[in-house]
Amino acid sequence: MTLFPRKLFNDSLPLIVLKHQLYSVHHDKTLVDKELNKLREQGELLMFQLGFDTEAFGLIFASDYKTKVLAGEEGRETRATVERFLEKVVSSCTDLSFSKDKMLRQFLFTDTEITQLVKSGVLTVRDAGSWWLSIPNSGKFTKYFIQGRKAVLGMVKKSKYSEVLKAELEERRTNVQVKFPMKYLIHDIVGAELVESIPTTSGPLLRFVDS
Amino acid sequence: MLGYLTARQAGLDDPLRLRRAESTRRVQSLKLNPDRDVDRIHGNGINTIDIEAIEGRYMLSGGADGVVVIYDLENYSGKQQYTCKAVCSIGRSNRHVHKFSVETVQWYPYDTGMFVSSSFDKTMKVWDTETLKPAEVFEFEGNVYNHHLSPIARKHSLIAVGTKNPKIQLCDLKSGSRIHILQGHRAEVLSVRWSPRYEHILASASADSKVKVWDVRRASGSLFTLDQHNGDKSKASSEAVNTAHNGRVNGLCFSGDGLHLLTTGTDDRMRLWNSATGENTLVNYGKVCNESRKRLQFTVSRGCSPEFVFVPCGSSVAVYALHTGELVTMLRGHYNNVDCCEFHPDYQELYSGGKDCNILAWVPVLRAPDVEEEPDSTKKSAAGQPSVNPAFEDAWSSDED
């Protein structure tokens, strides 16, 4: 399923997929959820809160994440802390966020080390005293993603009767600002139920859902 | 079908199996039947309907104009085209009618001599069906959103009432007292439900996004609060810890056996919980559109396998499989928002009422009749045949082919 995320961020970001994109690929949401939880327990997959939507969770393979983060940390003083963090914390627990308590007691990180981790982008502030696990340099990703989602939704809305055949939408080219491939964005809007997918004789039809 | 019948006859199959398979097949073929109608009495939207549990014959409906109507659902006319007539109603001319909209009506669980209705005029009235006069009136400080009588209670006759006040009041039907209060919620209580399995367990849903389960015999607070993340504090932002939904929780329904609890919220999600442990079973139903500011009345089928959930979703009713979460079908037919729906377990019919002042009956579509008629077939045979022996004539089924 990691066919789509593009390597246009100069390879500095690992391949990210959103959980609801998988709902568009498989039709049984409960099954997808169960399998994802299994992979997370095994430590092969990491889930992140992306911040722009309470339900949008990003998924990355653990090995990918580690290599990219360490590559980004080359030559920086914070490297050692980040390495330690990755080994201890990420490999062992599957949480999405950490509270100050936990960091200090369980994992024995000091305050300065936590600041270093936030600086390097591995932790993002959630509220006073707790942090989300995050992807360094993911700001660009989120920005382009939201832009892309708006653009594709706009395309569907502007069509006659606010509906487009999926095949036709895939053919249309996105304008230069939208960096993601069409398929990636289509899976996103279908999975997040922003459009309704109706089966027709000429393939699935995407109709904008007014909510 | 014939296979099931022979297996049952030969003793290979448990008799329950035939019943369950046929009920499931009927529920899956629910459709709006042009022959079945319900009398249109309400002048405003219908907020709530209830079918009595004993015979399944009479249906109560409460409307936004304060009117309460009782319908007879049985078809004794022998004809296929049938309109469920209103037997009596508490209209605007009645001295004791509610002043504002009726939010919940419920039959007394043991006989149809009594029913209870609660409304936005801050009262709850216990009516005598024969005389249509209230035998008891309970007054409250805020709008009454929901009340519920336990369908299985033997040792108590308490009515749980959810009002604008965060405290849940328990009113005793026998003595008329209401000293028992359940404290714990922080905002208005939108829905209360007794468990159909244990007569002392009560679940309540509130606008503060929490669902609490109580044992009324306990002096201290609730048994537990439902947590959508199952205690995984890291998944949510810190304000959303220990909440059942990310918005107001406005619908509660126990499954038929009482082992599972379904909740719907304004975050457009429906969740299935294990009612004994409070664990979120994480069944994903997708987006269940929910914009209701008040309680949403939805229902679960009984006697089928797998069970189905009927949820009003905008102007249609969505049917989901209970345990897998897949959308089976959308029942479209109302002209405006649907507010309530109720399942008739004996005939596998669904009645739904909404803002368009209509109650629609969704009836299972029958199989096409067999080409060759046997002279004494009673089930699903082509009716209107004068040659059918009157002893075998189907006099109780209301939708004949």
From TrEMBL, chain A:
Name of the featured protein = Serine/threonine-protein kinase 19 isoform X2
For this UniProt record, the keywords arranged alphabetically read as follows: Kinase, Transferase
For molecular function, the Gene Ontology terms on record are: kinase activity
Task: Kindly list the biological process annotations in GO that this record carries.
Answer: positive regulation of Ras protein signal transduction
Q: Which InterPro entries match?
A: STK19-like (IPR018865)
Q: Which family is it part of?
A: Belongs to the STK19 family.
Species name for this entry?
Answer: Xyrichtys novacula (Pearly razorfish)
TrEMBL record, chain B:
Annotated region Disordered: the residues are 371-401
- According to the record, the segments passing through the membrane are none
Subcellular compartments = Chromosome; Nucleus matrix
Q: Which UniProt keywords apply?
A: Chromosome, DNA damage, DNA repair, Nucleus, Phosphoprotein, Repeat, Ubl conjugation pathway, WD repeat
- List the SUPFAM superfamilies: WD40 repeat-like (SSF50978)
Q: What does this protein do?
A: Substrate-recognition component of the CSA complex, a DCX (DDB1-CUL4-X-box) E3 ubiquitin-protein ligase complex, involved in transcription-coupled nucleotide excision repair (TC-NER), a process during which RNA polymerase II-blocking lesions are rapidly removed from the transcribed strand of active genes. Following recruitment to lesion-stalled RNA polymerase II (Pol II), the CSA complex mediates ubiquitination of Pol II subunit POLR2A/RPB1 at 'Lys-1268', a critical TC-NER checkpoint, governing RNA Pol II stability and initiating DNA damage excision by TFIIH recruitment.
Put simply, this protein is called DNA excision repair protein ERCC-8
Q: Which organism is it from?
A: Xyrichtys novacula
